[in-house]
Write a structure and sequence with these properties.
Blueprint (H helix, E strand, L loop, with lengths): L1 H17 L6 E8 L2 E3 L3 E9 L6 E6 L5 E6 L7 E6 L4 E9 L13 E8 L4 H13 L10 E2 L11 E4 L18 E5 L4 E5 L1
């Protein structure tokens, strides 16, 4: 059985060489962001040279004991992008390794690695308090995922409106508006903020 596998690998290699196909060269790795919060998606991008006719295999090591095998055999596979969430703070060595997985031959090139730092997420109460402090100091502050409507800012009264997609979930903690302004929200219009 082992001899049959070795023979199959040799035949596959000979076929690739005779057809003029050149394996892709793993040339780099990038983590976005390089420092992430717990639960925040991290985008792992592996770059390849000689990627005109992709046909090889890699193994992604996430640094937490988990791996993922990926076939690079279509133009859309280059560059390779994998997303991952990390549930605990720490430093993780993320690596992409050329790996044979028959019938796919391994990509060529050296292992590519980078260190990811994961930090504890700020509690919603801390984030809301910070946003409330900014709002009460007179500077408009919108919760994460909401954008300030610049036309709504009233410099005299300090009133302003934040917008998001219609039906977007409202934040768990409300903005603290400075007196005499009051907080308002309208999920169906995708609005919230401070108004007189």
């Amino acid at each position: 059985m082992r001899l049959l596998r070795i023979h199959a690998a040799a035949v596959a290699t000979a076929a690739l060489i005779s057809s003029g196909v050149v394996a892709q060269t793993l040339s780099g790795i990038q983590l976005e962001p390089a420092t992430a919060q717990v639960g925040e998606p991290v985008r792992i991008t592996a770059r390849f040279d000689n990627a005109e006719n992709p046909n090889c295999h890699v193994r992604v090591h996430f640094g937490d004991g988990q791996t993922q095998d990926v076939k690079i055999n279509q133009a859309k596979d280059v560059p390779l992008v994998v997303a991952r969430n990390y549930p605990a703070p720490g430093q993780y060595k993320v690596m992409v390794e050329p790996k044979t997985a028959l019938p796919m031959m391994k990509c060529v090139g050296a292992n590519q690695s980078a260190v990811l730092t994961v930090v504890a997420a700020a509690s919603p109460a801390v984030a809301a308090t910070a946003a409330g402090a900014k709002a009460s100091a007179g500077a408009p502050a919108c919760p994460a995922g909401w954008k300030l409507n610049a036309k709504s800012v009233n410099k005299k009264s300090g009133a302003y409106t934040c917008t998001a997609k219609i039906g977007a979930p409202l934040p768990a903690l409300k903005l603290e508006c400075p007196a005499p302004l009051g907080y308002f929200e309208n999920k169906f219009k995708g609005q919230l903020g401070c108004r007189a």
